[in-house]
Every structure is written in structure tokens, then in C-alpha cells.
Amino acid sequence: MRSQNTGETPTGVMQRAASILDVLDGVEPMNLSQIVAATGLPLSSAHRALEQLVALRWVHRHGKQYQLGMRIIELGSAASQQNALRQAALPSLHWLHRVTGCIVHLGVLDGDEVVYLEKVGGELVAGIRSRVGSRMRAETSAIGKALLALDRYAHDGSPEIDRARELRMVYEHERCMKGFSCVAAPIGTMGHGEPAAVSVFGSVAKIRADQRIHLSVQTAAAEIGRRLDLAPSGPARRRTARYRQSRLGA
Q: Where does the record place the region Disordered (predicted)?
């Protein structure tokens, strides 16, 4: 959940609705008091907006608890299906999941946050809370650092980002969960300027034992870029060329 209480009370019907939908983007339902605290809306305005959203099926009410409604889920699914990046990436994401046995994520950079567009293999580890549409601070994750590496001005002088730019890969050990590691590689920058990246998340033992996992992540990123006409550059082009014959399901 992202708190919208920044000191400025949202005004206008759409702003109030957007602020409520933003704070309801977590897994757990919220009651009216929690929504008021998170959005900064007056109690009466929040309650009125919530009732309108419930009537539109954008929000579902169960007793005193609110959560995102079925209409939002339907719209989100439609938007996901229409996303060109996701469509181009799906064959490679499923290939990457098959060859590594790891959880696979596709993400884009929105401001200073990663937004997950796709997740494959999520049932493998119950403690992983990432889901399609969820967000996290870019600088706290491997996939986020891979995304930041695509912006030549972001975190200029940061050793981690500089290394990610050079290698076109980020490897983190037990940062998000004990016993697990993450490997991420940048795909490229989409037509509207959004950096995109792919990552795998698996046990430390698996990722340390099989160095081909690192190369498979880079190969998948390069193949997704190829489908989107985003030519790889530098070290990534040389490393992935030997693996072009796999075609990643293309």
C-alpha cells in the first residue's frame, strides 16, 4: 500500500477516487478509518467516494472492510493483455522459468519505483509477496538496480549501478529473503521512455551452483529486446550472441 497523505488533501471527484484506489492496492482490506488516515481525505468525503466506487464495482465492501473490486480487476487484466512489452516478453519469461526453475519477474521503472508487469512461477515460494501491479523502491531490489542502470544519469557514481551498466546484470544474495538470491538484467527503454528489466528469484544454492542461470537471464532480456526492436549494446550483445540458437520459444 502506498500512503497518499502528503499534506495536500485531494480535491475533485477523480482525485479523491484515485487516492482511495491507490491505497487499496495492497493485499489486505482496509476499513474507513485506515483509508482516511492513508489518504488524508475528510471522513465524510472518503465515505461518500467509497460508496460511489462500490456502486461502480471499482471497490468491493465486505462488512466494514474495503478492497479493490471486480471491475478494477477486469480493467487491469485488459490493460495487461494490451501491453506490448508484456506480450513480447511472455515467451521468454516462460522459457526462463522452465530452464531455471526460478520465479521470474518482468518490471518497468515508474519514477523511483519498480512496477511488476508479469510474474511466472509465483507458487514456488509462499513468502514472496510480489504480484502483478505491485510496486517497490527501485534501489532496494536487483531488478530495480537493473532498471536504474538504463538511465545514464540515475545514481551517477554509484558503484552498484555503474557495475550493472557495465555487466548488464545485477546479482544480489539474500537481500530480500534469507536463503534466496536474485539475478536481473535490463531489457532496454520502451518507446515512451520506460526502462524495462527481467529477473529470476531462487535459492542461493541453485543460483550459485548453476552459472548458466545468470546467462539465461541476460539471454531472455536480449530476446525480449529483439522482439521490440531494442538492440542490445556492449557486453550484452557479445554474451548473448552464442545463445541465439535457443530462440527462447520464439
A: 231-250
Q: What is the pTM for the complete model shown?
A: 0.62
C-alpha cell at 147: 532498471
Largest CA distance in the chain: 63
pLDDT tens profile 95-147: 999 999 899 999 988 888 888 888 988 665 555 667 787 888 888 888 988 99
115-148 exposure pattern, b = at least 16 Cβ within 10 A, e = fewer: bbbbbbbbeebeebebebbbbbebbebbbbbbbb
Beta bridge partners of residue 203, listed in sequence order: 180
Q: Parse the chain into domains and list their residue ranges.
A: 13-74, 83-249
pLDDT tens for 113-124 read 888 888 988 665
Element holding 226 (H helix, E strand):
helix 212-227
Mention the CATH class of domain 13-74: mainly alpha
Q: Give the three-class secondary structure for 175.
A: coil
| Assigned architecture for domain 83-249 | 2-Layer Sandwich (3.30)
The cell numbers describing 135, all together, are 510496486
Quote the CA–CA distance of 125 and 64 in Å, as a whole number: 31
